[in-house]
């Protein structure tokens, strides 16, 4: 029989059942419960309404540029034409290449978490969608990963840009920072994310778009948020 650790028992005493708490109170509780030695991720989970009055279910997939960054470290690769390789390196990309990078991708041997592609190279990378797609690495203009402004794209991904997308049940999750962030910075990121999601609501969906909101940390317990 599995036994809960002393740490879990300690933070479970801070749980709140069947009650919504304000965002600030929830954030403070989440930070209080982040008692591991590593810098835990602070995460938001949303339940959104997908039911449209006309047509099929709505799907949300976009990016949000958090004002205080996400604290998440990404290893960024840039696929570009040879003439832009120096520009990509100066932009801070961890991996840069042209046809040689495509060969690595084709072989499945790559060590990056985000891939930026220039428009000129999209024709060459398209056939490798079966390799990149399942890993969430296929470049997409809507997600800021197809770009001619490599400096801006690399900087955004390495700082505050997070991708959000819902599953078939309307669940959506995103990091908004780390436990080392101040409560004020986390709240600013939280409010920015919530407002960004609300703006994505299509006119064909009636009523509240966000049906439920939860805050938690990597190794903590979650709190249902209501109000500010």
Descriptive overview:
This protein has 228 residues and is an alpha/beta fold. The chain contains 8 helices and 9 strands. The protein folds into 2 domains: 118 residues, Ribosomal protein L1/L10, rRNA-binding domain (Ribulose 1,5 Bisphosphate Carboxylase/Oxygenase), CATH 3.30.190.20; 83 residues, Rossmann fold. The strands form 3 sheets. Strands 7-1-8-9 form a 4-stranded antiparallel sheet, with helices on one face. It is globular and about 55 Å long. The protein starts with 5 loop residues before the first helix and ends with a strand.
What would you say about this model in short?
The protein has 228 residues and is of the alpha/beta class. It has two domains: 19-71 and 160-224, Ribulose 1,5 Bisphosphate Carboxylase/Oxygenase (2-Layer Sandwich), CATH 3.30.190.20; 76-158, Rossmann fold (3-Layer(aba) Sandwich). It has helices spanning 6-12, 23-33, 85-91, 99-107, 122-125, 129-132, 150-158, 183-198; strands at 41-48, 61-65, 76-79, 95-97, 114-117, 161-165, 171-178, 210-217, 223-224.
* Superfamily (CATH H level) name of the largest domain: Ribosomal protein L1/L10, rRNA-binding domain
**Overall geometric form:** globular
Overall mean pLDDT: 89
The total of helices stands at: 8
Estimated structural class = alpha/beta
| SSE succession | HHEEEHEHEHHHEEHEE
CATH topology of the largest domain: Ribulose 1,5 Bisphosphate Carboxylase/Oxygenase
Helix amount, in percent? 25-40%
Strand residue percentage: 15-25%
Physical arrangement of strands within the biggest beta sheet: 7-1-8-9
């Amino acid at each position: 029989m599995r036994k809960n650790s002393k740490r879990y028992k300690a933070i479970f005493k801070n749980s709140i059942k069947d009650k919504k708490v304000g965002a600030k109170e929830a954030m403070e509780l989440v930070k209080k419960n982040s008692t591991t030695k590593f810098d835990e991720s602070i995460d938001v989970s949303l339940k959104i309404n997908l039911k449209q009055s006309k047509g099929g279910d709505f799907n949300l997939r976009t990016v949000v540029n958090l004002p205080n960054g996400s604290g998440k470290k990404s290893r960024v690769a840039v696929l570009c034409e040879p003439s832009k390789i120096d520009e990509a390196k100066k932009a801070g990309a961890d991996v840069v290449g042209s046809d040689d990078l495509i060969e690595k991708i084709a072989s499945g041997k790559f060590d990056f978490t985000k891939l930026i592609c220039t428009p000129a190279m999209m024709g060459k990378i398209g056939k490798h969608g079966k390799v990149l797609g399942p890993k969430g690495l296929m470049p997409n203009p809507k997600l800021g990963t197809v770009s001619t402004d490599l400096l801006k794209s690399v900087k955004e991904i390495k700082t505050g840009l997070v991708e959000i997308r819902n599953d078939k049940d309307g669940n959506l999750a995103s990091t908004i920072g780390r436990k080392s962030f101040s409560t004020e910075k986390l709240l600013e990121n939280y409010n920015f994310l919530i407002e960004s999601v609300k703006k994505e609501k299509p006119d064909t969906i009636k009523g509240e778009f966000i049906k439920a909101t939860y805050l938690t940390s990597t190794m903590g317990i979650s709190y249902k948020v209501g109000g500010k």
